[in-house]
Each structure stands twice: as structure tokens, then as C-alpha cells.
Amino acid sequence: MKSAGTTAATGAAVTESGHVVPRGLTALLTTAMAFSMMQLFLLGALGPRLVDGLGVSETLLGLTTTVGFGTAAVLSPTGGRIVDRVGPRRALVALLAVSGTALGLIGAAPGPALLLAAVALGGLPQALANPATNKAILAAVPAPRRGAVTGAKQSGVQLGAFAAGLPLAAAAGLLGWRGAVGVAAVAAFAAALWAWRALPADPPPKAGAVLRTPPASDSPVPWLAGFSLFLGAGIASVNTYLALFGAQRLGMGPTTAGALVAVLGVAGIAGRIGWSRAAAPGRAPWFPALLAAGAVGSAVVLAVAVRVEPLVWVGAVAVGVFAVSGNAVSMVLVMQRSAPGRAGQDSALVAAGFFAGFAVGPPLFGLLAERGRYGDGWALVAGEFLVAGAVALLWAVRDRRTGRGGTT
């Protein structure tokens, strides 16, 4: 069978190893990842408008992130088992449809109560995103290409950041913030229809419950979950408060402040693709510690930007290249090391750690932001990244001693 071949019925590419790759699979998975966390970036990019227009305080803005990602952290283990049971197509369609519903409710929220409820609903697609997309890659993409496809689809999260920070933030100037969120909701429903039509049908759902098998004793999952906990706490604080920092402390207008999130998003796309492509099995275990070290430096740059304002742009780029890329490399490691049949569950457990960090980080930062102590806030973020790096380094050293670091 030739790698350039296609199936007669679907036009999907067929690889030399016999994998049938649906046309546009990478683009679809990237889109799904973008919408899974779109609400986070919209709330961050539109933060100045929400504070002024909806009466949302800085602390409550952080609480929205806590509610959304707290829900995602609680649901992630169950979400992984559900994906292993029902298949990636059903899970991706549900992910995108629920994302559209949550965005629509955010746009219609008359006050903080419904806003928080809508954000909680948005935790479900976050819980499904990594298990569903990773499962789709393992089912359809040959092993040599999985790192590249994983990096591309993980960059979808940062594509969502770019969309929220630039075109949607600009649209908010024309349509109002509710109109901009409504545009995002319609796009999510359109993507759900795309997924339903583009992906091959899943087999019938497995009868009974999927077993809750624990990770193997030498699995990196517990370590990667701990790394992701502290990494997520720092990233979520940056995502939620970077635009508000630009507007309140650096005197930027709302659109320019939102562009900071877009810049972070573009840098994150490049970082996730580049680092994931480079994450060969022999060297990938060292990447999380390396990226965490760069993330510490990015937070320090943001702290210095309190006094040297142009450095905020440098800090935003560095957060994208280093901190944001850590999650993509974690998912590459999960797929390299997961036992057969455990990809969805392992992805979900690592994602649960990441989401728990997203839930914890912003409220702590918000307490400092409400007092105008952004410098202290960025120092807190640097400390969170430092702990993440320590966890990653300990695991990489242990992995090398046990002889797993050079496996393929």
C-alpha cells in the first residue's frame, strides 16, 4: 500500500503502515483544542471590559478560572474513561457542542452568577480534550508522525489565545463583548458539525464500565501530573491577568492589552510545535525541566516589566515559548509511555493535574492584583514554575537511573 494512496469512499490518506488518516485531521484536532479552552482566553482578554461592564472584580475574575478548571480537574479522570469507552468521534463532537453552549451562556450572562455557571459547564470540554484528541492520534497516525501532530494540535490551545486576544478582542470593540463571545459560540457549533462529518464512525460503545486500572509502577503519569499542577498554576495566572496588568498597571488600552494575550498565543503555537517535534523518546524526559527553567525566566521578565514597560512583550513571548510548551511535551511523553488501552486515562490524569493548577493559581494572583501588587504576583508565578521544574528534574533523573530514558 502506498503512502500517497487514498480511500475511494472518503478521500482520506492511507499511510504505508495501513493507518487511514482522515482528511484535515490535524486541523480538526487543533480546532477542538482551541475551543476546549476558549472561554479562559476570552475571559482573560476581555477582562478589562468585564471588570468595567459586568461589575466583575479582579478576585472574581480569578474565581471564574477556578470554577472552570476545578470542574475540569474533577471530571478529567472520568472523562478519560468515557473517551476510552465511546471513542474519539463522539467525544470530539460533544466537546465542541458543549463549548458552544458554554460560550453562548457566557455571552448572555446578566451577572456573575450565570457567568460562573457557564464557566463550570465549560469545564467538561476541557476534561475531554486531551483524552479525545490523543486517542484520535493513536488510532489514525503512525508513530513517527505522532510527535508532530501532537505538537500541532496542542498549539490549538494557543491558537485560541490568539483568536481571543486579537480578532475577538477587536470584535468586542465593534460588537460589544457579548457579541464577540457570541461569534465564538457559533463557530464552536460549526466545528462540531465538521467533526461529525469528517471523522470515521466510532465502534459501538464498550459494554460495561471501563476498568480503573492504575498506571504502571514505572509510569511517568504521577510525576507529569505533579509537574502540570504547578505549571498550570503559573500559566493560568498569566492567561487571566496579563491583559489586566497591561491595562491597569501599564496604561494600555483594552485592545492593546488584549494583544498581549494574542502575542503569547502565537509564541505558544510556535513553541508547542517546535518542542513536540524535537521530543524524541531518548531526550523527551529532560524537556519538561528545561522548559520550566525558561518559564521561570519569563516570569522574572514580567516582574521587571512593572518598571521597564516594553519588557512585557518579551515576557509574553517567553511564557508562550517555554511555559505553554510544557503541556504539549507532557502529552507527547504520555503517548510514548502509555500502556495499550490506557492512553485516554493517562492523558486525563495528567490533564487533571494541569487543570487543578489552573484552578488554584489565578485566585492567589487575584488577591495580589486587587491590591496592585503585580510585581509580587509575577514573583509568585516564578515560584510555581520553579517547583514544576524541580518535580520534572527529579523524574528525569529517576527515569534515567531506571534505564527508561533511552527507550523508544
From TrEMBL:
Tagged with keyword Membrane: yes
One cellular component (GO) term of this entry: plasma membrane
Membrane-traversing stretches: 25-47, 59-79, 91-121, 175-196, 221-244, 256-275, 287-306, 312-335, 347-365, 377-397
GO molecular function: transmembrane transporter activity
Topology in membrane: Multi-pass membrane protein
Keyword Nucleotide-binding included in the entry's annotation: no
Subcellular localization: Cell membrane
Every Major facilitator superfamily (MFS) profile domain range: 25-401
Keyword terms of this UniProt record: Cell membrane, Membrane, Transmembrane, Transmembrane helix
Any matching Pfam family: MFS_1
Matching SUPFAM superfamilies: MFS general substrate transporter (SSF103473)
Gene3D superfamilies with a match to the protein in the record: MFS general substrate transporter like domains
Protein name: General substrate transporters
Native species: Streptomyces venezuelae (strain ATCC 10712 / CBS 650.69 / DSM 40230 / JCM 4526 / NBRC 13096 / PD 04745)
